[in-house]
Amino acid sequence: MGEHILWFDKLQKTDVAAAGGKGANLGELTRAALPVPPGFVVTADAYLAALESAGVRPKLAALMAGADPDDSTALAAASEQMRQLVGSVPVPPVLHAQILRAYHRLGKDAAVAVRSSATVEDTEGTASSRDNRRSSAARQVESAVVERGGARGRGTWRDGVAVFA
Predict the structure, then answer these.
(1) Burial of 98 (0-12, 13-18, 19+ CB in 10 A)
(2) For residues 161 and 134, is the Cβ–Cβ distance under 8 A?
(3) If we measure between CA atoms, which residue out of 86, 133, 128, 99 comes closest to residue 4?
(4) Rounded to the nearest 10 degrees, what angle do helices 93-105 and 44-53 cross at?
(5) What are the tens digits of pLDDT across the range 41-56?
(6) What is the Cα–Cα distance from 27 to 155, expressed in whole angstroms?
(7) Strand 5-7 and strand 40-42: pairing?
(8) Which residues pair with 42 in a beta bridge?
(9) What integer is the mean pLDDT of 12-36?
(10) How far apart (Å, rounded) are the C-alpha atoms in residues 35 and 65?
(11) What are residue 137's DSSP bridge partners?
(12) What would the pLDDT profile of 97-149 be if each residue is shown by its tens digit?
């Protein structure tokens, strides 16, 4: 697993696929010298690599292929199975170390906001809903930073999102 941390000051609007819309926009704001606290994103590739290493991607693909968007009960059940699969994926040790290293670089007393966002919602031609994203705040809590920042995109598999993914 390569480096999967991108700092705001290195991001720009063309980085949506890797960093998500919020990450890319924070990069643009930082580069414009607007008052944005220092920060970083965990890349979409890190999420995919974690799913791959855990053997979850084929299972997710099978559930997606079998999901009937016209059957809300079946769709809800499939989405729940997808959330459970993604939730069972551990943060790979290399990614865990990268996230902690980046977090520590922010400083001893850094207050952080950890946001999990599906980059698919930020790509052209896809549906987006504020309900597809979950946010959490943490202060000096390494486990929360690693847990929320590393491959735990359960919200990506919410009922309505599964139809568009």
Answers:
(1) buried
(2) no
(3) 99
(4) 150
(5) 999 899 888 999 999 9
(6) 23
(7) antiparallel
(8) 5
(9) 94
(10) 44
(11) 113
(12) 999 999 999 988 888 888 766 544 555 554 444 434 344 433 334 555 666 55
CA 30 to chain centre: 20
CB 60 within 8 A of CB 51: yes
Structure tokens at 72: 């809300």
Q: Are 44 and 52 in contact (CB under 8 A)?
A: no
Report CA-CA distances (Å) from 64 to 75, 77, 90, 119, 161: 9, 11, 21, 18, 11
In the block, residue with structure tokens 């906001």: 113
Token pair 């290493």: residue = 53
Phi, psi of 123 (to 5 degrees): -95, 150
Q: What is the 3-state secondary structure (H, E, C) of the chain?
A: CCCCEEEHHHCCHHHHHHHHHHHHHHHHHHHCCCCCCCCEEECHHHHHHHHHHCCCHHHHHHHHHHCCCCCHHHHHHHHHHHHHHHHCCCCCHHHHHHHHHHHHHCCCCCEEEEEECCHHHHCCCCCCCHHHCEEEEEECCHHHHHHHHCCCCHHHHCHHHHHHC
